[in-house]
Design goal:
Elements (H helix, E strand, L loop, with lengths): L3 H13 L5 H8 L3 H7 L13 H14 L7 H8 L3 H8 L17 H41 L2 H5 L4 H37 L7 E6 L4 H5 L5 H26 L3 E6 L17 E6 L5 H10 L5 E6 L3 H10 L6 H9 L12 E5 L7
Parallel strand pairs: 1-3, 2-3, 2-4, 4-5
């Protein structure tokens, strides 16, 4: 039996001699190449001409999903990458910080950064308009007060006359009109900010609703069994799909988006939406064909587009943990293994499979 230590030592020795290959490693350890592939699958990386930084980060994420609370050792990472410790230090030494268990290996998506930048810009404009409004009101108040102070007692008494009252009334109406206009501008800006924050305006269409299954029953359960968890999961999904059917019948959307992230991303990862029309987004993680086909059958006649995320199990577990999904790794692994993707023959208008990591990392 070849131990991990013997394997690592052999990799380092062959790497130092520039003779590292699967065949050379099998000969040195006195085993077959197939045995190496079965017991040390990381040897598949030995055939790569050059590892990229993204390759290293993906491997770190896989190890973090397996052992989230432990520091990743350079030896373990180098072994899984099929390189020597010296090669890692020379080419990827700037990634040492990611080996700590509390390191942040998430990066904001370009979509999120764009939205945040737009929100910040609109907030800045709103603050500027409010300051201008306040300055204009203060200036007008100072002007009126100064005019009154310049009048003597006799002139001051004439304010009660009809003409003076009319003049003051006109000034008050002008100020009220100015305040209404500024208030309208502020409301418009606040509406833009709210829409950007909720990402309601995608693709030029009107998103009339975004339904998501409620898994709070799982979160609130006290030590539920695997059978109980599956039952609560299925009930939450069925309730969500039934609510979607009712809303579709009531509001008559032009398109229904069946968004199935399978615990690997959120709505920001949706790659495309229709260019126009009313859209109902139904987010669902249901993996059973019969439940999905029943939903499609009940909404026959509607344009239903399936958007399905495809991600590795390690990535799914990592995202689910960060998003505080109330299901353990065992349940997510089982769901991931039994996913049955939709096809156009199921009665769908279109099926789009996408890699969520291209849009939200």
């Amino acid at each position: 039996m070849v131990s991990r230590e013997s394997f690592t030592q052999a990799v380092e020795e062959l790497g130092a001699a520039s003779k590292l290959s699967v065949s050379a490693l099998a000969d040195k350890l006195c085993v077959s190449r197939s045995w190496l592939y079965d017991n040390f699958p990381e040897v598949r990386n030995l055939g790569r001409a050059r590892l990229s930084e993204d390759d290293v980060i993906v491997e770190i994420e896989k190890i973090r999903a397996e052992k989230p609370a432990e520091r990743i050792t350079v030896e373990a990472l180098s072994s899984r990458l099929g390189i020597t410790r010296q090669t890692f230090s020379r080419n990827f030494g700037h990634l040492y910080d990611l080996l700590n268990p509390d390191s942040d290996i998430y990066r904001k998506s370009s979509v999120e950064e764009t939205l945040l930048a737009q929100v910040k810009d609109l907030q800045k404009k709103l603050n500027g308009i409010e300051k201008e409004h306040e300055a204009a009101l203060k200036k007008k108040e100072d002007q009126i007060f100064s005019d009154l102070m310049r009048k003597d007692a006799e002139e001051f008494n004439t304010i009660k006359t009809s003409s003076s009252l009319k003049r003051l009334q006109n000034q008050a109406e002008d100020q009220a009109q100015l305040a209404r206009e500024k208030t309208k501008e502020n409301a418009a800006l606040r509406l833009q900010i709210a829409k950007l924050k909720s990402n309601e305006a995608q693709g030029g269409c009107e998103v009339i609703n975004h339904l998501k299954p409620d898994y709070s029953a799982v979160s609130n359960a006290n030590n539920p069994s695997a059978k109980d968890i599956l039952r609560m999961f299925t009930e939450a999904e069925k309730h969500n799909l039934k609510a979607a059917e009712d809303i579709a019948v009531e509001q008559k959307p032009d398109h229904i988006i069946l968004f199935q992230p399978y615990f690997s991303c959120d709505r920001l990862a949706i790659p495309v939406l229709p260019l126009a029309g009313k859209v109902l987004i139904v987010e669902s993680n249901i993996y059973r064909i019969d439940h999905r086909n029943e939903f499609i059958k009940n909404l026959r006649g509607y344009s239903i587009i399936a958007l399905q995320a495809s991600a590795s199990l390690a990535k799914t577990k990592l995202w689910a943990r960060g998003a505080k999904i109330p299901f353990d790794a065992e349940f997510i692994s089982k769901l991931h293994a039994e996913i049955a993707l939709a096809v156009i023959d199921d009665g769908l208008s279109a099926v789009i499979n996408f890699d969520p990591e291209r849009f939200v990392v």
